[in-house]
């Protein structure tokens, strides 16, 4: 029998840890899983199930998430994405963190070396591949690796807190397993440059990245509308570069003006999505102005799209997000609820036991509401183009760059 939702997780995934003071702190993953469990969304038998906080999504029962452990990817699997010389460099630094090799991006402030780095990063990859395997082989309709989404890692270089590129490895596994087409949707505030680079010339993979403009945010030199795919794959790289300060209305308008039409035209057999939540207005490393409610709405839209075009086959990863207590656990709990066929009621309060866990682990208070109380409304693109609006200009630039390649009207 096919499960509705699966979460690939165990405490081994929190070993991906660059050390004290680094923004990518594993506590955000632990807090997310703790909140998801306290809300009764994980079917692990540890507490009596309650549905008071959730409602079933259309066509879904109140099943919740089955949790399974994360395997570690082998070196051969890593080599489907990364150069052997790079893997060996990571292994050397993992064995002796005093070794710094900036040629491979190792030992930089963004990517400091740490003991066990290779094993920890390989486990993140293994978790995303296990999620992909679960979906492709029909064990689960949806599957998530919330510790994944390390989309900046390049074939021969660590970049942007990312050692190995787990979304790319999951996509590669799907292709090698016979999946004819994969759509990758990246909602992180930073451009999904590593995944785009790896599949830039592959017409079987559509990469869509909705991000803050690289004119104002890392990775700076990539993520412009003009990047549309290599020879024979024209139109399969899609970049929606939004201006600094974009809020819910503009971000959701951009999402709906681009993503559904392109994915429907591409007709993937599986959707893989990356849900970095660093576009939230409280995130310390970026400059967009989103609410939890907008991210929740986008996750629901991707879920609906997976059922409309891919028979529900949906592989989910986390990503960035550096408001470790106030934002990440809440957004990702909403996401995981949707993976499990549910939606957390917007008026839900965070469980008291979770707030106590935050106090014990972080020495601070936790938010009491599960959303920001925002409306997360937007105007459809069909309502008309405003040339004075920088968000509309960004949307139009991308539509004109890629829509014709898919037989779509850019205007």
UniProtKB/TrEMBL annotation:
GO molecular function: histone deacetylase activity
Coiled coil residues, start to end: none
Alphabetical list of SUPFAM superfamilies matching this protein: Arginase/deacetylase (SSF52768)
InterPro entries: AcuC, HDACs, His_deacetylse_dom, His_deacetylse_dom_sf, Ureohydrolase_dom_sf
Keywords per UniProt: Acetoin catabolism
Protein's pathway: Ketone degradation; acetoin degradation
Stretch forming the signal peptide: none
CDD domains reported in the protein's UniProt record: HDAC_AcuC_like
Residue span, Histone deacetylase domain: 49-337
PANTHER family with a match to the protein in the record: HISTONE DEACETYLASE HDAC1, HISTONE DEACETYLASE HDAC1-RELATED
Family statement: Belongs to the histone deacetylase family.
Name of the protein in question: Acetoin utilization protein AcuC
Species this protein is from: Thermasporomyces composti
